[in-house]
Amino acid sequence: MARKGLGRTFDSLLGINENPPQSEEPKKAAETASEKRVESLRRKMESGEVNEIDITDIDPNYEQPRKNFDQQALKELADSIKSHGIIQPLVLVRMGMRYMIIAGERRWRAAKMAGLKTVPAVVKNYTPQQIKEVSLVENLQREDLNPVETARAIKQLMDECNMTQEAVADRLGKSRPAIANTLRLLSLDDRVLEMIEKNRLSAGHARTLVVVTDPEAQVKLAQKACNMSVRDTEKMVREYLNPKPQKVKVPQSIELKELVSNMQRVFATKVGAIGNDNKGRLYIDYYTKDDLDRICAMVEDLRQKAAVDNNEI
Questions:
Q1: What is the residue-wise DSSP string for 122-187?
Q2: Is the pLDDT of residue 246 over 90?
Q3: Cβ(209)–Cβ(218) under 8 Å?
Q4: Which residues are designated catalytic?
Q5: How far is CA 91 from CA 52, 53, 183, in A?
Q6: Quick one: which H or E segment has residue 240?
Q7: Which of 76, 158, 182, 287 has a 20 to 30 A CA-CA distance from 40?
Q8: What is the mean pLDDT of residues 188-212?
Q9: Which residues pair with 91 in a beta bridge?
């Protein structure tokens, strides 16, 4: 069973609220929240709860789910750190004579880029199990992973921390169906997952392809879906799964074809035949009222002739 001791939100570990309260003056509220964070960090530094750690003594957590770091975003963060420093400390665990990052790898990378020698950090005494759980939950709560990284992190959280979908949903504040839908992405072909990771395909598009079990067909449909809406992708998948039956063309005899040809000459319009010598349908096209009147007159002449031949008039 999942342990609840780590709490629902990761920020409770630091006592820092990452989401400033809404205000009619957002800029002023943001500035106030930033000032509070700086003051909170200062107090924690003074109390010894937060320490300055040599940046070269810190290693990343190689099991963390986020694999891709946007270089432009890192540069922007590095520029901010040069101007304002690191407001929220990293969370580390001691590993022998070194430290491993539990939370804050992006800040650590940006701090290195900015040329900092030390970074503020909280050093925690976590068990190996807690390290895995906190690291995964922290990344998932940031909600900046791509959909594939999120799905893999949830799967890892379930496998390594013995959590059910319900437990993960509760920990992340999401619904169980949302967790289930995210996990479904992992059933897709690796080539389709790569499209999602490269932002060529959205998670919404990808989820419609889960029901396609043939990997090659799945990839082909995914390639087409890159230029389609989700609704059109759903329609394409439905048509793939329920193809319309192919019309079988029935071979026609020479005599039937000759009959159609003769009728076209007689009625001076298009005539067609569906079927064969045993069963089928003949149809006559008309394009104007004059065509229809002419055909009706010819049929009436034939009817009268047939009546005379049968002594009906």
A1: EEE---HHHHHHHHHHHHHHHT-S-HHHHHHHHHHHHHHTT--HHHHHHHHT--HHHHHHHHHGGG
A2: no
A3: yes
A4: 105
A5: 12, 11, 28
A6: helix 230-241
A7: 76
A8: 93
A9: 103, 122
